[in-house]
Amino acid sequence: MLTVAVLISGTGSNLRALLDAADEPDYPARIVVVGADREADGLAHAEEYGIPSFMVPWERFESRSAWGAEVAAQLAVWQPDLVVLSGLMRLLPAELVDAWSPRIINTHPAYLPEFPGAHGVRDALTAGVTQTGASVIVVDNGVDTGPILAQERVFVLPDDDEHALHARIKPVERRLLIDVVRRVATGELDLAAS
Ligand code: GRF
Question: Is the pTM of the predicted complex or chain greater than 0.85?
Fold first, then answer.
């Protein structure tokens, strides 16, 4: 059974989908802890599922490195096989990435390498493209530059605003994430070879 830690900042709808999947008896991964950098709404999903959680408030640390060291210490308590960034709106310090990569993955609401960064949905709309997408990648020390594990196109509709487009991308992200975690757990996907 693959053990997974999930780090979030927001509503955690993708986290919830992974919790739902992991609740199925034949799913080969279990979420052992959920962490956040703030009082994220998504922490409520962990509580509902009886999964432990931790919070490392960004603003209480004097540097990215100090914050990351505390996140690393929390992860060390749970020793997950895999860390999933699911809407964590912080760049991790290099020490943390180097310690975990390639066993740390991220979901992104665009078809990387198109539209990396914190505003992937907005940037696709601003660019006026007709298709964007969703990606799951290995986290490296760049901004959304790691090896791509799965991705799928999503059409942009003429009336889309950021909210509407993001709402259509998220279900695709969830499906890709659940499938990537499953394939890592079964050994079908070897992150070390990515
Ligand atoms: C997802 O689109 C994720 O890729 C992005 O933030 C969103 C998180 O949504 N970085 P939620 O918190 O899972 O609802």
Answer: yes
Q: How far is the CA of 151 from the centre of ligand 1 (A)?
A: 15
Q: Which of 41, 43, 86, 177 to mutate to test the pocket of ligand 1 (most atoms within 8 A of CB)?
A: 86
Average pLDDT over residues 35-58: 97
CA-proximal residue: ligand 1, atom 6 (nearest):
87
The ranges assigned to domains in the chain are 2-193
Please give the DSSP secondary-structure letter assigned to residue 160.
-
Q: Which fold has domain 2-193?
A: Rossmann fold (3.40.50)
In whole angstroms, what is the distance from residue 25 CA to residue 47 CA? 20
